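Suppose a classmate hands you a notebook page containing two proteins, each written out with its sequence and a corresponding row of structure tokens. How would you begin to make sense of it? This section walks through that situation. The first entry is reproduced here exactly as it would appear on such a page.
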Amino acid sequence: MTLPALGLGTFRLKGQAVIDSVRNALDVGYRAIDTAQIYGNEAEVGQALAESDVSRDDVYLTTKIWISEFQPDALIASLEASVQKLRTDRVDLTLIHWPSPDDAVPMETYLPALADAKARGLTRAIGISNFTIAQTRRAIGILGADQITTNQVEIHPYLQNRLLVPFLQEQGIHITAYMSLAYGEVIKDPVIQAIAGRHQATAAQVALAWALQQGFAVIPSSTKRANLASNLEAARLRLTDEDLAQIAKLDRGHRLANPEGIAPAWD
């Protein structure tokens, strides 16, 4: 399986809320689910998948290794635990959630361990998340660009990452955009709303279509079945060159995912 263009994100969803979100998403047609060790919801995601009528083989399942698990033995053990919580025999994609802060654990330690997890069959593919250009270059030197399925980074109309994006595209590394709606901020934008009106679409569909038309994968989350179904329709929306030019002007470097002590020095 290749990484689907539109999947379900589960950040900040806990307990019954994430179970219902995953169940509804699968019901309306999603076939990619994104979670992470630090989200604390892998067991609930696994429950929803197990209880679904959708075959596990038809779902592209992603999780992410947290920074506390970067020593080789810990990384493998933590992924084994994630696989068990998710009630499966493997995940489809495993990412390094954040590069080790201040290089406390060198990439040369944890990236080969991630590759070892793939060799052991715990994950079908591997990748990175929140890596800068310099960090991605280093990862390429360790793994090879062809082994890095994606770099999952924050991208939305208010944060367009105009240095990182072309670099990743030049390297042939797929981009997964998270926080595509900027916690709902961009759907309130009058430019986005005007474009939505012209297309008889929702503002959320416009923001997602903007990312999809650039070749990014997106993983929006929602607890509402109607919104889940609506977001899925973004794949059918085609924005015009004028629409894209207007959205390009909205970039303001507005970064939301920037945890102190963890985030790298952004490009």
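The notebook's second entry, a different protein, reads as follows.
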Amino acid sequence: MACIATPVILELVLFWNNDSFAKGLKAIEKSTSLVIFPLFIIGNFQRVNFLKLLQVYVFGTTLVLLFFFIRFNILFPELIHKYLNGIHLWEMGYQFGNSVGIHAPALNMHLAFVSVSAFYFLIKSFKDHEKFTLKVIRMITFILSFFFVLFVNTRLALINVFIGLLIVLFYAVKLDNFKKVALKSLPVFILLIAVLFLFVQKDPYMKEKYSSVSFAYMDKVGKLDEIDHPEVKVFNSLVTRVSIWKSAWELSLKNLPFGVGASDGKNELNKYYAATNQQFLAKYEFPTHNQFLDFLLKFGILGPLVVLFYISIIGYLGFDLKNAVIISFFIIFFTSNLMDDFLLRFDGIAFSGFWLSIFSSYWMQQKSALVNSN
């Protein structure tokens, strides 16, 4: 419980460094779920059914997204028409995320975990010889969840899905016969490749996005205003993130060892954009887009150490339990926080705190069972 609460503890220890008492309290308020979830979930760890809860989450989230997808088609037919005709393909994922009420990269972080978990249950259904009807439901759930990852279309989430699928297969092979697992998984991968192929055919922008767009203008790091219409050409490119990271790093070094305070990070970074004449970054008030740098800026030297410790707990639980789902969650959350700052957002804090508490409860159950058996 104390390990999961470390980000809150850090905010409390360095609360004196906030310029605004009210904003400091608001920052702590966002993180209180890291105390509440462990208290109630780990405090009742014997009652937590990890696999059943995960199944409900996977099926429920996929069903909810299907509803929102149908709703999106009804309410925004002009966007779907543009999409089907290959016009402004880059905006679709963000528009869909906005219609759901969540930032597209945050939505796709959730969906990547859902898709990997759905694949885990699909492989498990083959191994456990479940009924044909149940296998079909699991197959449909997986294909739908994978489709939604493609539709929202954020690069890191798609990469994380494929890494997660490989991890699930690796542990399935370790625990079962390789030939048996390969033969049973073959139809799934054929379907997966078919969905991906059809999607790329309908969305040729994907090829461009994953190659030339991502790495364009890398010679303009810190000089984005020299690009003609940067909001059109590099809004979501790597060069923009690297420029933000460069500014956040420079500002962090000026405010060591304790940082600028939890309530002042974004304001100070925006002021630094303006002071260094980076008008594009100042106009859109970009946050750090890296959780390690965000905590370095706010809390100084202790910040990135706490983030690393917090995320590493997930990895420790996954590798200790040899559980493909938890390991995949660790990779998804770790890499997502290299490119974004999900411990800055309430949905990211609650998402990680909830599942980390569930994983911890499952770990405690396994350890208790081992002790009792001995």
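A careful reader of the second entry would note: The longest helix spans residues 346-373.
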